[in-house]
Amino acid sequence: MRRWLTGLGLFLLMGSGGAMEVDIQEWQTDNGARVLFVERSELPIVDLRVTFDAGSARDDDQPGLARMVSNLLLEGTEEHSAGEIARSFERHGARVSTGSGRDTAEVSLRSLSDPTRLEPSVENLARALAGAAFPEDALERVRQQMLLSLRQVESSPSSLAERAFARAIYGDHPYATPPGGEAESLQAMTRADVQDFHQGHYTAANGVIAIVGDLNRSQAEDIARRVAGALPDGTTLEPLPTVTMPDEPVTVRIPFDAEQTHVVAGQPSIRRGDDQYYALYLANHILGGGGLTSLLAERMREERGLSYSSSSSLTAGVRAGRFQMATQVRNEALGEALSVLRGSLDELRDEGPSDDRLEASVRNITGSFPLQLDSNRALLGYVATMGFHDLPRDYLPRFVERIDALQVEDVRGALRERIPPQRLVTVLVGPAEVIEAVE
Amino acid sequence: MFKGTEAVPEGEFSDIIAREGGRLNAFTGRDFTAYFEVLAADRLSIALELEADRMANLLLRSEAVATEREVVLEERRLRTDDRPEGRFAERFAAIAHAGSGYAHPIIGWADDIRATGTEELEAWYEHWYTPSNATLVVAGDVDPDEVHELAQNYFGGIAARAVPPVHDPVAIDPPGERRLDYPDPQARITQLRMGYTVPSYATAENPGDPYALLMLSTVLDGGEGARLPEGLVRGSGVAAAAGAGYNPMTRLDAEFSLYGVPSDDDVESVEAALREQIARLQEEPVSDEELERARSQVLADHLFQLDSVFFQAMQLGMLETTGAGWETLGAFEEQIRAVTAEDIQAAARRYLRPEQLTIGVLRPADEESQS
Fold this sequence. Notes:
The structure holds two protein chains of two kinds.
Chain A: H1 8-12, E1 25-28, E2 34-39, E3 45-52, H2 65-72, H3 82-90, E4 95-100, E5 105-112, H4 115-130, H5 136-153, H6 157-170, H7 183-188, H8 191-201, E6 207-213, H9 217-229, E7 250-255, E8 260-268, H10 277-289, H11 295-303, E9 310-314, E10 322-330, H12 334-351, H13 355-368, H14 376-388, H15 395-404, H16 408-418, E11 425-430, H17 432-436
Parallel strand pairs in A: 2-6, 7-11
Antiparallel strand pairs in A: 1-2, 3-5, 3-6, 4-5, 8-10, 8-11, 9-10
Helix pairs in contact in A: 2-8, 4-9, 10-16, 11-12, 12-16, 13-15
Chain B: H1 12-19, E1 23-28, E2 33-38, H2 44-56, H3 62-81, H4 84-96, H5 110-115, H6 118-128, H7 144-155, E3 178-184, E4 191-198, H8 209-221, H9 227-235, E5 239-246, E6 254-262, H10 267-283, H11 288-304, H12 309-321, H13 328-338, H14 341-351, E7 357-364, H15 367-370
Parallel strand pairs in B: 3-7
Antiparallel strand pairs in B: 1-2, 4-6, 4-7, 5-6
Helix pairs in contact in B: 2-7, 8-11, 8-14, 9-10, 10-14
């Protein structure tokens, strides 16, 4: 048998250089699936991901349906049980997984590039996708597992906060319901519901295939053809409704007996492809996305010792992502923490960052961006996202330029227009008397 | 260690690395504290210069210590005090590793955190933070000779201090089977954990044993097709989730763990099923098909991990610090290939014994017992 590790030194010397010259090749399979491919041969491995427009935003009036389908996807065909399917991959050292969020559902495969390993794994994936049968016993089992997960949410203040935050910022939009579902909808879900969702959403027209790794274009074309060939042609779906922005500041309080109160404050953000994404990305980096040097970490942690972790994050979605600040503080310091969090955001929006801060953040983002693409797995994530959201193909090389060109006024303007104060939703999870005592 | 030196005042370390497009952080495990920077290869010397400075010249001001103490207490609340799983894990470790340093939580007991002042920290820094007790790991697009020269340059001038040998008390061995029954008022589901004290890379008398245990753990839980998901989750259905794990990168003996989440709170059936799985491994050798499958998985995963330069550095550092030696990584494939079905059976018989076992159950407290 071929030895996989010909010498460790070879891989240890592998660098991150050249990451900005990522060459993304793109084509469409005969039955309509888009494919993005990057050849990378430092390691003898191949990563593949199929991303479908099949996240919980498509749940309609059955919260948890998209997740249920994703969880059941590899749980059996007419010919093979879930265990047999799993072992067919494991035999070749391949890893296969499914996942789902609000916008997307994914199937991912990681295999050695050695054709005697890769070939059967691609074949197994195609067979499992084509023949997904959603057996009744698997449905019952996964239903129980998902109900247990819902119960566990009740013992986790951070999960409770996240659930309440999404509900509050997205209002009536399908983004508002938890991807993991709700007890009532899970209990009522039938095999027919699952099959219908699968047929309508797991199609070539509704999927994007990303491939990264040690293979050439014609091998990649062959793999894409076989994976897409396992899917019905399908049609693209109706666009999701737009998100209605919150129209006044709201505070949601969830009583939970603990020494700390969990705080999440923020609002819906923007869609992928929005031009102001770059300015908001920089604003978020300055505020709380830049690790130990960000405003929130400095003020909350370094200066005041109020919390272990204080950060902000920004995501963009098909219709809207979210902007949020999050921290956990000892109960007696909640009032102070809230005014630091909200005050820091207001200050950045009203006055903009200092020139120094802006420059430091720009240098960090532009200098670290190539390092973020230094593993095949990370690159796969970027390429899959670019494909799914149909971002311009020069997105990666242009990213650094776009950030580099930003001025103080861009940051302030983006925050004013896209993250205005009247939309701020605050979620507090902590002891009743503590969370009632603050605004 | 982020609070500054005379040359690099508080905050500047992070600012410099951030401006250079890097990221940094630190973490403490049971056997080591690690500080890391990730940045472009041509900026290596910046990180080395900063690390060398704070290895020798840290200023511990009492004001900074007071602020950081609050931060550590917040971290403790977040990870342990306010989470049923955190409260359970701390109790489990205290019982499973009684008599060893592993019995204490990494972050420390809340009382000890409150009682730790500048003097204790200075003594700790004096004692442990010296080149003879440090391992520098550099992974990436660099030239080994240049790295060596840079290291000599920046760290070579720091006065060496001898580090006193560590004393590990000989605890009761074997300790006998122990059981933790922990009802938690905020737990909503029942969880079972079983931990066997087993050798690590560093403590194994027979160097092949850790590899046999890694293979054993893969036979049980290498993926959805392995014995535990197949037998307990999809087969009998007693568990909603079940798994096994083993990390041999520890300085002292390691833990081989099994866990299970009962699908309908019947934790006795899950325990019985896990014990049955152990007994089966002891009674009969794994099949050729299982052995081959586990080997393919372990070796492929080992290669997949090389995708992360950061993790390569992590692994080398952990192997070296725990006493296994960084060369362990290079011998991994050969050692895994050498494991036979008989080795796995022998390891199960020798190490997965009741007198080395701790069983813990985290379960929701009854309404009545809460009042």
